[in-house]
């Protein structure tokens, strides 16, 4: 049932030791994160209710309550073309699931470009590693609601999608942020994303030949849009 499925997802999340990943894999270059909306714990909008304890004992209890005391088999897609730190972190999480929960994880290392079309035609049927980089108040719900493009493997219920997709036309930033906070409440309750870490921002050095560059689009905080570059 759906409650058992929710407990399984929470068990997976509570087995992730973010601090260990940050210290031992990322060599200290990272921070814990709990919100898919890219709201960090030090943000005034962040809620304590979003925090995920690292608690393997409780995770095992949840898995037992859900009917899987001995674990189960699952596939996890960790794209081979992702950054080394991300791949190593995801592999460490898979190892923890095996050790702590008895889950036999088979890792698929197919490169991202080869399997991404399945996220567009909606045939993707396994959990997979991915990153986020939303700006505050973005229409991030477009990736977790029915649409013609890329989604992350599931869709939220209609009421949540109606609220989240309002951000595409809502002019008030505070309203958009409030909408995303409500969405995050739902995502955390259902544990539809299992967070691993927040990585430092990528820095770009702009040379003296660049006259102007508008690097950001309406959604993301990572520099992009090279077509907007003009030279002196």
From TrEMBL:
Gene3D superfamilies, A to Z: Dipeptide-binding Protein, Domain 3
Keyword Signal among UniProt keywords: yes
Subcellular localization(s) per the UniProt record: Cell envelope
One biological process term in Gene Ontology: peptide transport
Domain Solute-binding protein family stretches: 6-130
GO cellular component: cell envelope
GO molecular function, one term: peptide transmembrane transporter activity
Keywords attached to this entry: Signal, Transport
Transmembrane segment boundaries: none
Family: Belongs to the bacterial solute-binding protein 5 family.
Protein's UniProt name: Solute-binding protein family 5 domain-containing protein
Lineage, highest ranks first: unclassified sequences, metagenomes, ecological metagenomes
């Amino acid at each position: 049932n759906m409650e058992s499925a929710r407990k399984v997802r929470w068990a997976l999340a509570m087995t992730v030791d973010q601090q260990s990943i940050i210290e031992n894999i990322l060599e200290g270059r990272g921070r814990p994160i709990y919100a898919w909306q890219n709201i960090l714990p030090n943000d005034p909008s962040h809620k304590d209710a979003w925090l995920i304890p690292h608690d393997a004992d409780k995770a095992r209890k949840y898995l037992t309550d859900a009917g899987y005391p001995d674990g189960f088999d699952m596939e996890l897609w960790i794209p081979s073309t992702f950054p080394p730190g991300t791949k190593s972190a995801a592999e460490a999480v898979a190892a923890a699931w095996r050790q702590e929960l008895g889950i036999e994880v088979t890792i698929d290392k197919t490169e991202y470009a080869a399997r991404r079309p399945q996220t567009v035609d909606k045939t993707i049927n396994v959990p997979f590693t991915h990153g986020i980089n939303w700006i505050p108040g973005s229409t991030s719900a477009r990736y977790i609601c029915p649409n013609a493009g890329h989604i992350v493997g599931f869709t939220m219920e209609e009421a949540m999608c109606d609220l989240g997709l309002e951000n595409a036309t809502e002019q008030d930033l505070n309203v958009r942020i409030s909408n995303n906070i409500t969405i995050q409440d739902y995502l955390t309750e259902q544990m539809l994303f299992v967070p691993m870490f927040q990585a430092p921002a990528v820095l770009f050095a702009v040379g003296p030949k660049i006259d102007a560059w508008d690097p950001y689009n309406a959604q993301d905080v990572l520099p992009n849009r090279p077509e907007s570059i003009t030279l002196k």
